[in-house]
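Quick note —
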Amino acid sequence: MVDTSWVWSPRDRLAPRSLPVLAFCAAFFPVVSGSRSYVQNLLQLSLVHDYAQATAVGLLAAFGVAVAPRRMWPLLAVTAVDAALRSPGLLVAVTSYVVATTCRRRSHLAIYAMSASLLFLVPPPGAALASAGGGVALFVWLPMALGLWATARAQVLEGLRERADRLEGEQFARTERARAQERARIARDMHDVVAHRVSLMVLHAGALEINAVEHDTATRAELIRTTGVEALTQLRAVLGVLNGSSAEHPRPAGDPLVERPSLAELDRLLDRSRSAGVPVERRDEGTARTLPAMVEHAAYRVVQEALTNVHKHAGAVATRVTVRFLPSALEVTVGNAPGDDGRVLPGGGFGLVGLRERVELLGGEFTARRGADGDFLVRAWFPA
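Predicted structure written out below.
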């Protein structure tokens, strides 16, 4: 969201540079508009005096503009004294614009407008009243009108920015609510469909384990039951994430999303595949060392998903898992021989996509390809 805690006004844009410079230059207007010629002033050495006086007035006026947002009286005092001693000119116009963009009370604006107008309506001897009236319109009313218009425009723009920010915030809140509702709906559907059927599988496996006569059948039933219980535990954790977890509801110790499996649990994962009839061989290369938890967890998931695909698409075929510890990286490869039927169980193809995203998020490289002989190789490389 855009921060609109403060908004540039015309006064803020112009005052730091333009208005002080303009006020300094405006102080020279009575000098160049004098009745005497330039040569006469130069011969009488009065031009040097006039320009010195104008320079002093210009410096004071520029200082008054710079401090006007906090204190208006320095600029008003310099303008009034200069208009009384010399003659009102462009410095009054600058002051009128500054007053119009700074003052917020109408009474103060009215008092200034009347006072500044009197400086022109009481002309020096010999000056025409019509000329004085034109000076009021040109140097007082017109700058004030421009200042009021600029202030009103800035207020309108500020209101539009605030409204846009408010609408953006409301849209963001509606989007977040919609996402939360969709996550909750997905969590309910997963609970109703997946959790219910996995629970039935666990119950049937437990009954088969108890009533099995042969030891091999009881062992396989126990493996199915244990795997189903772990799947339900992880499913509950995923449903908790979908429903939203916060610091007020921390995950308990032992949660599968807190205690993430690593390469230390890789042998147990391979034993499960061997129990299911898949001959898996593990090979380690390089010097084993402690790696970041995220890298080990991602490597474990790569092997897990690759073995799942072997079970689903190849069957009980020879499989090799290689864990290679490189000097500054970790490489994991899972290769299997060609399967008998090519497709044992249906799959949606999302597992490899998820693995690629997981590996690339850690700055690694992921490849999955089928060989010319029908074998399949999954390779993941992690910087570590």
